[in-house]
Amino acid sequence: MELLPRRPAEFGSARYWDRFFRQRGQRPFEWYGAFPELCPVLHKYVRPRDKVLVVGCGNSELSEQMYDVGMCEDVVNIDISDAAIRQMQERSGSKRPKMSYMVMDMLQMDFPDAHFQVVLDKGTLDAILTDEEEATLAKADKMFAEISRVLQVGGRYLCVSLAQAHVLQKTVEYFSQEGWVVRVHQVAGSGDKQQFALPVFVYVMTKFRKIPGSAPQILEICPEEQDKPMRVESAERLVAAVKDRQHYALLCSQLSKTPCREQVSLDLCDKESGRPRYTLHVVDSALVKPSRDNHFAIFIIPQGRETEWLFGTEDGRRQLAASAGFGRLVTVALHREQHYEGMASIQAELSGKVMELAPPGLPARQQVPFLSVGGDIGVRTVQHRDASPMSGEYVVEDVKGDGTCYFRRLVFLCNRNVVQSEARLLAPTPLPGQKKRRKDKKKPSPAEPPAAIDKSYLCCEHHKAMVAGLCLLGGPDPLPGALLAVLVVGLGGGSLPLFIHDYFSQARVAVVEIDPSMLEVATRWFGFSQGDRMQVHVSDGLDYVAKLAAEAPAQYDAVMFDVDSKDLTVGMSCPPPAFVEKPFLQKVKTILKPEGVFVLNLVCRDARLKESVLATLREVFPLLYARRIEEEVNEILFCQPSPEGRRDPAELEARARALEGALRQPGRPWDSSYVLADMLQAVKIL
Predict the structure, then answer these.
(1) Is 336 helix (H, G, I), strand (E, B) or coil?
(2) Its Gene Ontology molecular function terms (predicted)?
(3) Could you give the CA distance from residue 181 to residue 216 in angstroms, rounded to a whole number?
């Protein structure tokens, strides 16, 4: 501990370094970055005939090792410490005749201008630039100016650094403003084997003649796993890219030492585009006792299934890890913008990277299994991609579910982990008289899903619960043949209003959708159509309901809200907050018939906000039922304007069974997994 300086300023003191090297003795001192790790980067920029200056050499072996492997011979080492230079001279002796050592202050060097092709600095800048005080920054400017003076045009300043943000920012700004090309290399393997958890970087500044005017900056970063540099547009982005890699190295260091109590999430980006290619979640299971064979596994989530509860939530992933029986499970989600050849290519691409996330105690050379559902990566086909002024970018995609089923989904890319609408696709059936495909003929590609929409199937559990809520309507039996007026706010893919239209033969359905693009999507891609009993009004739901309340009150048997919020900063993603404010809810009550029902899909992660919404609903509607959707955040609220419509659970179940029996008509398709009574079993009266 006595070797450490009392103040950062002592790093620039010859007296301190003389004392340091005398007390340390002859043992070489390396701040960070061993030669085998630095060599692949250094050999790209140092040629055998280059004249090399090493500033602040200390008693590091770096220049000696470069000399000994033939990387360079004409090397001058300088340091302000006389003790360090004497040690280096004694150690080299006559073994390296072309290598010289000099006591010299790099802030005021005696060399002529343009004397060197390479200036090498290992940790010296980090020792000088200890803070952002004015005097420290002035010293750094002086150091840079001297390095610039002694370098030839086309020469390289190579700086080995831990890349603290202020050090990198100062270096990049100075040399880029001088018209130099700045490239930052991450040194491979430097984050986990050294005494520092942080990775080591090499800044490569190449000197060009300064062009008058505003020449474009050339800033690049080379991650450790690739040779090809990536261009970045500003010093701030370069610093941010380095910081991302530092955070990743710290994370890997932490994960290699202790189990993680909370799930860790990170994105691995495509080398070419820089866009996320894989999203990883690291899950440690306390329920699994690690043995030699169950320490660690990788689980590839099939394409399109990353939004399912088991893969898309913390509780689901925790259950998955326990069921898989591994102490640490890394789940890997695949991104729709990327192309994947198959499980083997993904395994080859990820095997090196995921091992950096291995748990403590993993046996050496342990084979780490890659798991998936059914052993494949699933199928995802993007059918349509566009952008709407209101909804932003969106995609319509077909994905393969369990077994042979395919599903069509609408996803808003502003919230890509949420499926906005979903419909099941029908398997193609041969036409009358059409012969079956012969076995020897080419089979259809599994990546070509069927195109027809199964309108009898409600994919979303909250839609099933919303339909089941029609049991609350007045009358002796809420039969499908009853004359019903239903208002649905929020079209999406149109599954909910289509189901009500098709299964309630006398229902007249009005749909309000603010985004005209969604009407086009629903019509073109989800089998939606308008008719005498189905009308879509392209309007703001707030304005439409307000107008109805003023002009035509008490006309709807059911009003359903299934509308998302575009404001992701609010802890409620459905509906937008304005839809649950008291004055607007009173307008909703006004357009309902006295025995009608208001059905609201509520998705709220903010507990206080949710309680506030429920309190407001209770002020307006005297009768309120709630149905929580299992394994989802959705909660379906059934609100009635009169307390006289209160029904006990047994009566609700009986009405639900009666309704389902009436809906199941001979010759009409019905999803056998959809039981209306089940949708109402867990209803609570609030």
Answers:
(1) coil
(2) methyltransferase activity
(3) 10
Buried b (16+ CB within 10 A) or exposed e, 427-450: eeeeeeeeeeeeeeeeeeeeeebb
pLDDT, residue 591, reads 95
Phi-psi region of 58 (alpha: psi -120 to 50; beta: other; left: phi over 0): left
Report the alpha-carbon distance of residue 470 to residue 559 in Å, rounded.
Answer: 10
Mean pLDDT of 286-315: 84
Euclidean distance between the first and final Cα of the chain, in Å? 66
Is 75:67 a contact under the CB 8 Å cutoff?
A: yes
Residue 38 burial (CB count, 10 A): 24
How many helices (H) and strands (E) are present in the chain, helices listed first? 19, 27
15 pLDDT band (50/70/90 cuts)?
A: low
Residues of the chain with CATH 3.40.50.150: 8-250, 458-685
Mean pLDDT over 65-78 rounds to: 93
Q: Tell me, what amino acid is at 646?
A: R
426 or 185, which is more confident?
185
**Residues pairing with 284 in the sheet:** 328
Please report the pLDDT score of residue 28 as a whole number. Answer: 55
Phi, psi of 140 (to 5 degrees): -65, -40
Q: How far apart are CA 180 and CA 154, in angstroms?
A: 9
CB 317 within 8 A of CB 310: yes
Six-digit token string for 349? 């691409």
411 strand-pairing partners? 395
Question: What is the strand order of the sheet 392-400 is part of?
Answer: 380-388, 392-400, 406-412, 421-425
Q: Read off the tokens for 1.
A: 């501990």
CATH class of residue range 8-250 = alpha beta
- Other C-beta atoms lying within 10 Å of the C-beta of residue 68: 12
Name, in order, each residue with C-beta under 8 angstroms of 163's C-beta and a sequence gap of 6 or more: 184, 198, 201, 203, 242, 246
In the block, tokens 């130099």 appear at: 180
Round to whole Å and give the CA distance between 96 and 100. 8
pLDDT at res. 474: 65
CA distance 408 to 414: 19
Helix, strand, coil percent values for the chain (each to nearest 5)? 35, 25, 40
User: Helix 541-551 and helix 582-591: axis angle, to 10°?
Assistant: 50
Cβ(98)–Cβ(73) below 8 Å: yes
Residues present in the chain in total: 686
Residues 602-630: pLDDT tens digits? Answer: 998 888 999 999 999 999 999 888 888 87
- 458-685: CATH topology: Rossmann fold (3.40.50)
Q: Tokens 């999507």 identify what position?
A: 521
Of residues 27 and 498, the one with the higher pLDDT is: 498
Contacts of 411 (CB under 8 A, 6+ apart): 336, 394, 395, 397, 418, 419, 420
Where do we find the tokens 């609570």?
684
CA distance 157 to 67: 18
Which amino acid, residue 43? Answer: H
Distance (Å, rounded) from C-alpha 518 to C-alpha 390? 10
Spatial CA neighbour of 296 closest among 347, 367, 350: 367
126, 4, 1: which is closest to 55 by C-alpha?
A: 126
Report, as an integer, the average pLDDT of 463-471. Answer: 87
Sole residue written with tokens 């342990």:
366
> Which residues, in sequence order, are CB contacts of 257 under 8 Å at separation 6+?
360
Closest CA to 329 of 297, 353, 364: 297
Q: Which of 490, 666, 476, 651 is nearest to 579 (CA)?
A: 490
Euclidean distance between CA atoms 3 and 17, whole angstroms: 9
- From the CB of residue 541, how many other CB atoms can be counted at a distance below 10 Å? 23
